[in-house]
């Protein structure tokens, strides 16, 4: 009994000596940013500040209650849900009675707000660029941004989100540029950080609208104009390659609802009765978005009559001013971007050839009487102009034609230059060979040159050419001893300087082609100036008629 008591007392004293005091361990949070948001995870590190980490085991407490035991020095928490107090306890593995408690850490958590997505511009022309910008409040470090395109879910008024191409890991920049935007589409964003990644919620769905007609999905409006009186009923119809459609409406705050939520949807047609509202209308299927139409419902007495779809550049367009009562409107004036452009018309404004500069907000005003009493003004609507596709393709053709013609001419010139270069090079080589073979004499050779119809005999060179038949069965036929004297005139030669050349020729038969050629045997040519050694190929027929001496 005494020994046991002394043993326990000894361990207690050893614990005091070893630990020093109860709060020797240090607990800190491993994070790269602040504030921390509800739903994020953090890593706690417990440091006993003595010995090796492997000499200890660790337990962690939350609000005073242990929730983990026998942990290594690091602990990653589950998603944080509220403000809590954490602490760790280090247990020595060799002396179990030795423990060290850490300091207490309180985590202050914030609720991350829904990301805010903006699009610029919200209306785009075909092929234009659109910039998406995503922001998170409150501001914090470490975010990466993920960009999504909306995919309609029918028959419900909902969407799924698909990551835009090349965006699987997000972007460090809080903006994303869409190039070549063609049709109406919806987009969303969210932010994420950490490992594992903590994601914010999705932003509100934002739309980029295009008035250009998509052949696979188009919206038609009846009556066919952008402005309508509040007492009118609208009929909106969807057409295209899909079999199931829904008509969507969104106001200036981007609150989007379907026709079924507010009016009556029958098949692919929406009827608003007399309860239409101002806003943007478009059609959706599971794979397509149609052109969008920005409709204005006016409670006043006059509206602007303008086309629903963009006007092709070069075409004509007529804008009108219409009274609710169908009466005549007097002293009609038209405005573009609040500037007067036409007055005292009969109620119509004709633009005979629309150009890009004609885009803008148009409105009209007039009076109900010729005296100018009771003036009324319409709301403003945007006139959109698009570049014609056929003009774009036809404008490319002349450029390609000119480029093709220029390229062809350059190619022909290069070939002609190459041919002339090769001919001149061959002529130069021929002259060089003749000069090397006749260094002692320098003659200009012109065949068929006559003086008064007669040859100058003093300038002739006589060559004796002997032909030998090819060998047959190892035998050589006797040569024909009859000489052949071609007529050759040598210009600028001395009158008495006549050179005699004797060339013996023989014919050989090629193994593959079966053609004959004459091969000149080595002969010694005697002249008054120099002795030459001639060994070259001479054509049989040409030797007899056009031989040029190598003198």
UniProtKB/TrEMBL annotation:
Keywords annotated in UniProt: Disulfide bond, Membrane, Signal, Transmembrane, Transmembrane helix
GO annotation (BP), single: cell surface receptor signaling pathway
Composition-biased stretches (Polar residues): 429-440, 542-551
An MF annotation (GO) of this entry: transmembrane signaling receptor activity
Superkingdom: Eukaryota
SMART domains, A to Z: IG (SM00409), IGc2 (SM00408)
One cellular component term from this protein's GO annotations in UniProt: external side of plasma membrane
Transmembrane residue ranges: 396-418
SUPFAM superfamilies on file: Immunoglobulin
Species per Swiss-Prot/TrEMBL record: Gasterosteus aculeatus aculeatus
Protein name per UniProt: Ig-like domain-containing protein
Region (Disordered), start-end ranges: 428-456, 507-551
Domain Ig-like, residue spans: 115-191, 300-380
Biased composition regions of type Basic and acidic residues, renumbered to the chain: 507-525
Signal sequence segment: 1-22
Ion transport keyword on record: no
